[in-house]
């Protein structure tokens, strides 16, 4: 660990020399503009490839830059970034040569990660026709990297976190990027603004409102249908109380 600690000391000295108040300002809090959702690959350092510094970018990374709706780690990061930090741009950043994407394109088992890779195989299933038409394997995998990024941006748009944010005056923008390790360049797939309008009837949060309306109608109908029995029960209770009072009077006369 000594090289790590030594590099840290050198970095601190460099930062203080350029800006004596640098760390004091960082300690006051963060207000990042960007949320970076990227791959865990060590060759894709978020701040380095985007030219951003400390405090400018909130970062979440996992195998193959996935947005999985049962991943509470990702969802917690997303909600905090959007609702608390108020990020303006959310980027899903994949990279060519991704090992997770390549593994998902095979029929091999790898162990614990197989469940995670199923999410990428779902991308293949959705785009199977296009995927199988590409004969060159390397080009097929490059395209799968791009398709995976596109689908993860769409998965972001399906979350109620993003859909609710889109109803606010200053909603975040969604972006899909791919990093080319050989060239060091980012490629914009131009999928920002994917509102899934063609799938609103399935994924939109308006569905929840509709479900509530249906539930209210059902509950109202059940109450209406049960009113006769409720009335009968009430009448029976009155008769029982009258009988008890009459019996009590008769016992008093006997005494």
TrEMBL record:
Sites where the protein binds Zn(2+)? 39, 41, 95, 98
Question: Which cofactor does the UniProt annotation name?
Answer: Zn(2+)
Give the PROSITE patterns listed for this entry. Answer: PROK_CO2_ANHYDRASE_1, PROK_CO2_ANHYDRASE_2
Residue ranges annotated as compositionally biased, kind Basic and acidic residues, are 236-255
What the entry lists under Pfam families is as follows: Pro_CA (PF00484)
Q: Which UniProt keywords apply?
A: Lyase, Metal-binding, Zinc
Q: What is its EC number?
A: 4.2.1.1
Give the domain of life.
Answer: Bacteria
SMART domains xrefs: Pro_CA
Looking up CDD domains in the UniProt record yields: beta_CA_cladeA
Any one GO MF annotation of this record? carbonate dehydratase activity
Region listing for Disordered, in residue ranges: 215-255
Q: How is the cofactor bound?
A: Binds 1 zinc ion per subunit.
Q: Name its GO BP terms in alphabetical order.
A: carbon utilization
Q: What does this protein do?
A: Reversible hydration of carbon dioxide.
Q: What is this protein called?
A: Carbonic anhydrase
């Amino acid at each position: 660990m000594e090289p790590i600690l030594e590099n840290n000391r050198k970095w601190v000295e460099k930062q203080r020399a350029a800006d004596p108040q640098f760390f004091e300002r960082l300690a006051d809090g963060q207000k990042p503009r960007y949320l970076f959702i990227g791959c865990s690959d060590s060759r894709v350092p978020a701040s380095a490839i985007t030219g951003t510094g400390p405090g400018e970018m909130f970062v979440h990374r996992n195998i193959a830059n996935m947005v999985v709706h049962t991943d509470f780690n990702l969802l917690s990061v997303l909600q905090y970034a959007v609702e608390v930090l108020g990020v303006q741009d959310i980027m899903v950043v994949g990279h060519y040569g991704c090992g997770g994407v390549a593994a998902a394109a095979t029929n091999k088992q790898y162990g614990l990660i197989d469940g995670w890779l199923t999410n990428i195989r779902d991308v293949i299933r959705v785009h199977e026709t296009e995927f199988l038409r590409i004969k060159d394997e390397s080009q097929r995998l490059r395209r799968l990297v791009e398709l995976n990024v596109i689908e993860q941006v769409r998965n972001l748009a399906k979350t109620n976190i993003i859909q609710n944010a889109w109803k606010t005056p200053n909603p975040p923008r969604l972006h899909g990027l791919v990093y080319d390790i050989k060239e060091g360049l980012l490629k914009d797939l131009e999928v920002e603004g994917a509102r899934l309008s063609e799938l609103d009837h399935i994924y939109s949060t308006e569905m929840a409102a509709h479900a509530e309306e249906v539930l209210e109608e059902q509950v109202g109908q059940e109450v209406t249908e049960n009113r006769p029995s409720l009335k009968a029960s009430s009448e029976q209770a009155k008769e029982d109380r009258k009988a008890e009072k009459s019996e009590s009077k008769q016992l008093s006369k006997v005494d």
